[in-house]
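My convention is simple: the sequence line spells out the residues, with the fold written below as integer tokens. I include a record here:
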Amino acid sequence: MTTSGSISVDDKNIVYVIGHKNPDTDAICAAFGYAELLQRTNMPEAVAACCGGINPRTKWVLSEANIEAPKLLMDVRPTAGTICTKNPVVATEKETFLEVYTRMSREGVRAVPVVNDKREVIGMLTFQDLLELMMHATEDGNSAEEARRVRTTLANVQLTLNAVLLNGDALEEEQDFILTVSASSTKTVQDRLTRYPREQLLVAVGDRPDVQQLVIEHKVRALVLTRGAALSDELLTLAKKNGVSVLSSSVDTASTAQLIRCSRPVESAIHREIKTYPAKAPLTSFYKDVQHSRQVLFPVVNEGSKTILGVFSKSELLNPPRQRLVLVDHNEFSQAVNGANEAEIIQVIDHHRLGGDLVSSEPIRFINEPVGSTSTIVARSFQQHWIKPSKEVAICLCAGIISDTLNLTSPTTTDVDRELLPWLARIAEVDIDAFANSFFAAGSMLKSWPAEEMIGLDRKEFEEHGWRISISQIEEVDVSAFDSRREEIIEAMEKLIRDRNMDVAALLVTDITRHISVLQMVGHEGVCEEIDYPSLGGNSFRLDGVVSRKKQFFPYISRILGRVGREH
């Protein structure tokens, strides 16, 4: 099972077909079914997803259908990862001005993250930073002298000039060079050479042998021959003897001097105190921080590391991409995946009441029908498109209908359910009753599951008459084990009320063979006292003939909540 908790950098174009939180079998199976229908009609990018754990019966169905579990998606809010541009232009701190400037100009970017050899972000460079790298302070009155100073390596000089090395050593050693151009008379050249420390002198010379000899005899750090000039064998021997590195450049003297300045590494210009954001950081958590920052580009990094994944600028915050969703088996944001109210809802397929809090900026396809399961609606949609679902999806849709209608015995069952289940069973090549028996026998949560997980697997939250209520349901072939688990179940429900800030929590334990339910209530005593079904003690009740949360229990508890009235 894919366990990504939120959408990733690569999920921008996917349409997720997803059921409610704490999904039941119908929510999972309807998502698979509708995703396949969309893929085969006009939305090939549709993918089934879920936002909660999968119960044992649903796992059995997926195994029977030979389908992998859907992607687990717990949050669809826009994040740094979803708004960023992948594969950004980057620089390294040892690269030269010319390398970085050329790359930024070619790619049309005004800032680049600086990374190390592990692609971890260590800082940021802008065009302004590069410009300042090439300029020198003038307030000390010594700007002419500073203009000659170039901190770099001979290896960088050779690379920038695309020069031929005739002699030299310690090419990778970074130092301050004093750049001079010896194109004047020998006397002027001599005066200039004696003005600066010889071990720092980097001298550009043309094809004048007398000047070449004068520079070499002075034992400067390096000599650059311009316009492809050469040294005589005697002078090259002298250069080796005097420890003078010699490079031969094909460009003219003026260009050589400028390119040498461009050989500076960008390391000193890097801004190292910058803002970076992990890919999963919700946009709302950093929106204001980014808007008030003077930084122009923001790297997105791996959680727990600084490895770069992408970059975004402030403009990406204006209209961030929203995850596209198709909601199945629910139509209320309170039951939807976290962040659904910030996503783009493009369709809703459901068979429950209208919740009233789901709005859209544009018209959407909204199918809400009073049938026994959402899988029924999906199956009929296949028929309306004159398409047969695959055998695998037919198995899933059979299970969705059987689960939500208790194999067509629930009061929510309609003629449409009765018509479509046999049609699906023929495609799935299953015997309905045998399949249903195996499905309901596939694992008892009462006998083996931790109470907290048991009440959370098929749970919905509602806001009704000012009350916040949680209703969980589990279906068993035998509810006799409930008594032995009641105390720990109550503790788990009390914790749920505290953690989720609920007023009331209800659990229906439904016996699918006898068509009765045991109701456990926890929370506001005024509500619990209004339950008029036979009491089993400790706010437990026996509900004969009640098997449907949607059609039987919710309308009942809604009337009680309205009657009791919310205390403020």
Summary: The first helix runs from residue 25 to 40. Confidence is low (pLDDT under 50) at residues 1-10, 137-141. DSSP finds 21 helices and 24 strands in the chain.
